[in-house]
Amino acid sequence: MLHKNKLSTAVVLAISSLATAHSLAQDSQAKDIEELVVTGYRGSLMKSMDEKRNAVNGKESIMAEDIGKFPDLNIAESIQRIPGVAISREGGEGRNITLRGFSPSFTRTTLNGMEVPAGSDGLDSGGVTINASRAFDFHVFASELFNRVDIQKTTTASMEEGGIAGTVDLYSAKPFDFDGFKFATSLQNGYNDLSEKNDPRLAFMVSDTFADDKFGALLSVAYSERTVRQEGFGTVRWTTPVATNNIYPTTATPVVNGDIAEDNCALNGSAVAPINCLWAPRLPRADYFGNDQERLGVTTSLQYRPTDNAEITLDILHSELSNNRVNYNSMEWFLTHNEITPLEITVAPDGKRILAGTYDDVESWIESRDQTSDSTFDQFVLSGEFTLSDALTLNAMVGKATNEADREEVRFYYISDSHQYSFDFSDNLDIPEVSWGEGYDYYDPENYQVTTANNRSNYVKKDNLTSKIDLTFTQDRYSIETGIAYNDRKVESREGNGNYPAAFSAVGYTKDLPVSNFGKGLDGNLVPFLVADFDAIYRDNRIAKDYTDNPAAAWIVGEETLAAFIELNSNVDVGSMLLKTNFGVRAVNTDVTSQAWINGSPVEVKRDYKNFLPSMNFSLDVTEDVVTRLSYGKTMTRPDLGSLNIAGPNFGYTTRTVSNLGNPGLNPFESNDIDLSAEWYFAEEALLAVNYFYKNVTTSLKTDIVEKLIDPEYHAAILADPQYDEAYNADPRTVPYTHYIPVNDNEGFDVKGYELIYQQTLSFLPGFLSNLGVVTNFTHVSAGDMTGLSENSYNMTVFYEQDNYGLRVSANNRDDYLLSIPGGNGHVAEMKYGPTHIDFSSFYNVSDNLTLTFEVINLTDEVERIYGTGDGTMDLTREINHTGRQLFVGVRYSL
Question: What are φ and ψ of residue 628, in 5° steps?
């Protein structure tokens, strides 16, 4: 830790002493800056195009349309307009990005110059744990806090390592970005047509400079509320009795309508009765997720420019994201095939699955969860830029960022008496018609016992400390830049267990679903059901939100890196052409420490590794309108810090899975990257471009998925775990569980693809049509069986904009993409549907200072859907849901 303290102290001293020296050495001289401020979406595109054109490496940018006004209400949804980018959504909002086919952990994200952590709890069925990976949760921040985003698609030696896919650089506004006093405020009312709720969204920013522009101060605040209602149907995967080693009772003699494929059991490797090889839903259920979300963001920026040759900036950012969530599922218990009796089934035309079925001895389970989660982010960055002489410039920075996320959950299962149950997918392959046997009232609390309460908490804290110093020597058309950077990253994870009361009657502890129109907007019939009355449960002290730390699940992973680089930049004429070059190399040492409690004793594992990362970029202005680029770089991405932990595994008793098996010996991913592009700026505000990229990942990781019995050393702990119920969960001593084990893979893989870009303001058209414009791009990526990869994706925006008003419509589409291979419960793979999202935005300028806005997000109320492929040729819905369309009416005022 000594070198960290020395470097951090050196950076702070360098910033302060250099500022003092320059202040004493020179008289103040006012900088005469002539700045053209272009606002609106069209102005944002112009500035972004200029950034792309002038860069030596492959780069895309997104600029704020106006002070505190980003093109989209969510940062991830703005970034998805960039070629090569796709996003994943939760609760109808963008959360993570996928760049050029790589999963979110392969994209490095910085804020105001330093890598930052940001993790939170999920909003939908994936919200069962906190993000402890390197993936950045973009929905933690309000978009109003930022005025620029750069996406670096090719690397340079001066860029910090960590992003094989690329790097996303976020920038908050600073007072010297503006000329004197600036003020902007906005107020919006958001309405969701599914939740039928109105939510406020407001922001303001004030900035000014003082003392002949030597000092500047800026403050911005953004606050929003969001009510999310997510509804749908799920099966928690389809499966076959033979896949779970759990066949129907041999006494069952069901009526079978239709033909079972002759080779179905052969494909499943079994010689049992053919009905046991038919795919059927494991837990057919109706789903409801209700989220009440609050988001607060505050930025402060202070700048000091004592002379023309020195500038110091202090950036402070604080963000809070809190969510109160209720989750209700009404499911039928098909997991234990040997305890249910098929009475009649209809086989689908493919002969592989059950299209409709009636069963006896089925239990209804109503799952009710009450969850709260909070995520807090704080960042402090002190940076300075100093011109030491005509040829020498020094940049220094020290920063600290902390993200804390915690969640608490109380979960009950309301379990019924056994009864008959029927489902029928004949008219809708996603949402079946369902019914219960005659004489059974599924809505009667008398038929339920409340049992198996899961009462637990999670806490994840991420800390990053960064210090770096760069020195640039410039001579004529050449420059040499060198520097060092130190990073200290740490992730701490803790879990807590609550109390688990004995079973009790559901009478007096149920209520209706909190909505009267359950299933609104879905193509299918969702049947309302009883849910837990948590107010009554807490009132009668049936359970308390008390949590005891579980030392066996606690872990800390630390990572210290020390890097040095040198790079040479040049601008030279080659005949009538201008050639810009960038050559460099970066060397980095990584020290990893993994700590945990194992069998009651503290254990620590340490290791280190080194990486040598050369890079080169060429940009050739063939003509005034044509730019070509060629880049090569060796890049790396370190394993997720969570996968390096040595704590005990997580057991999924219902899903029969063993996960969170850490491996601190994992090596980083390494890749050799080549990019080639051609850009034709064929008219003012116009671009036609093609980018080709190839990444040869030589060192990688993979997850071994192994079906085996759980190691005996864990048996006693499992049997003593209050969450394990031997009446319903598979016995770990006799039933195999699916183990997910991260290991190194030196076989590597290739990722290659291309991007096509067309962008133009159609000013050549006559009359009012000259205010039209179009921005579109298409991306194709090929990488085999890579999770999160959509082979094809496209974005298109058509806009109309003039001085007083404007509007635009944007569409975004991605192909279905892989979630896991193999999939769970016997599936060859699990996939996620690639939706087409359409958004609308418009404004009207009442005056130079006052603007009215209207926006619609998810105009067509697109569904989110996950499915399994069965034997590899099937489409079996795991879950389908929607969140409705969101409408925002607002007003902006600026000075």
Answer: -115, 150
